[in-house]
Amino acid sequence: MEHGGDVYTEGILKGKELIDFSSNINPLGVPSSFKENINEALESMERYPDVKYRNVKKHLKNYMKFSSSYFDSENQSLQKYIIDEEDIVIGNGAAEIIDLAISCFKNICIVVPSFIEYEKNAVKWECEIEYSYLKKNMDFDYKDILSKMKNSEALIIGNPNNPNGNVIDKDKFKAIIDYCQKNNKVILVDEAFSEFTGKRGFSLLKDMENNHCIFIIKALTKFYAMPGIRMGYGVSKNRELIKKIQEKQNPWNINCFAEVAVKYVLKDQQYIEESLKWIEEERSFITHKLKNIGFIEKVYTTYSNFVLCRLKNMDCNKLYDLCLEQGIAIRKCDNFKGLNEEYVRFAIKDRQSNEKIIEVLNSINHF
Ligand SMILES: Cc1ncc(COP(=O)(O)O)c(C=O)c1O
Predict the structure, then answer these.
(1) Among 123, 138, 139, 361, which residue has the least CB neighbours within 10 Å?
(2) 60-74, 219-233, 241-255: segment of lowest average pLDDT
(3) Is the dihedral of CA 21, 22, 24, 29 positive or negative?
(4) pLDDT at 366 over 70
(5) Ligand 1 atom closest to Cα of 220?
(6) pLDDT score, position 145
(7) Is ligand 1 within 6 A of the CB of residue 49?
(8) Which residue intervals define the domain Aminotransferase class I/classII large in the entry (predicted)?
(9) Which residues contact 287 (CB under 8 A, 6 or more apart)?
(10) Does the CB atom of residue 229 touch ligand 1 within 6 A?
(11) Residue nearest to atom 16 of ligand 1 (CA)
């Protein structure tokens, strides 16, 4: 399987229940603020959604302003957001926005290893691709990205990047933004996981306001635990690009359940606070424990809800099979460009599941 989250092939379709460490979804689950209001979606099912999604965009705009107190650093939260509804394009998951945004360019620089859809979409749209590889420590190679931008109309980069969870260093990235701004290039920043980074001010949302070269992609999928609702969005001051993407979309691409989700979960303060508390605790718990597993050579720095590890004397296929025998699905990373069978990725879940995977890995260690 190409992606994580395939609990069907070895699980459901074989009548087995697996603990899924291969996809990275907030274990607090679907927010109760959605469940309590689901009737609103049932009641609106018999009519078409607003084809312009005016209320959805209003809620997204409010969210980006309101959530600043949770995700911006202290000095950033003093600055005001100036996002307008016209700066937003909504999509059927972040995946639709990524795909259609990439389709607007003839050539693109893709930072790799990264979410494999970037490359698949670029190939599908016959874009020429320049690759910028992460450094050995999984940090971005800012100099290399800048040089690759000379031949590319656009860049796509994850912040945090999947599969390693590292984030953009804004000071080092500034030269790339300035270059793209001056030369009419576009930077697609995939922030599908950005909420998990907490109050550290890592998002480029604020930088987007004065730099029309920046296009941010976000979703309800990961932090609000709703992969099944398929709700994503793009935000940029580049109205031309927003319009180009909109022109490629089918009408009514978002259904009434996603509309209700946007209305309620994005102002669910209790859910946000509990999620931030959980991720800070569990990220440090699991990374610490993984460092003590004998066949794990390296645990990479992560600010997200997943951890990339390099194995020693063990390959990802063997580890995958051994974990599966004990009811756990992990993400093999050999199909990420730039990685090989030495790499695996683990989701960060609730304490009970995290303890379980550590127990399983320890048992394999002594095998
Ligand atoms: C980095 C990244 N961006 C985007 C997506 C797709 O998100 P969505 O399910 O909202 O389409 C994924 C899914 O795994 C991802 O890992």
Answers:
(1) 123
(2) 60-74
(3) negative
(4) no
(5) 10
(6) 98
(7) no
(8) 17-360
(9) 299, 302, 307
(10) no
(11) 115
What domains are there in the chain, each with its CATH number?
12-29+270-365 (3.90.1150.10), 32-267 (3.40.640.10)
* 232 pocket-lining for ligand 1 (C-beta < 6 Å): yes
| Predicted confidence (pLDDT) per residue in 238-266, tens digit | 999 999 999 999 999 999 999 999 999 99
Write out the E strands in the chain.
19-20, 88-91, 107-112, 128-133, 154-158, 186-190, 214-219, 232-236, 296-299, 306-311, 328-329, 331-332, 343-347
Can you read off the two tokens belonging to residue 68? 């600043």
Question: Which residues sit opposite 351 in a β-bridge?
Answer: none
pLDDT digits (tens, 9 = 90+) for 1-30: 676 666 667 766 777 788 999 989 999 999
Distance in angstroms (rounded) separating the CA atoms of residues 229 and 121: 21
Q: Looking at the CA of residue 114, tell me the nearest atom of ligand 1.
A: 1
Lowest-pLDDT range of 33-37, 139-143, 324-328, 349-353: 324-328
Burial class (CB in 10 A: 0-12, 13-18, 19+), 202: buried
With the most atoms of ligand 1 within 8 angstroms of its CB, the residue from 162, 189, 220, 335 to mutate is 162
Q: Evaluate if pTM is beyond 0.85.
A: yes
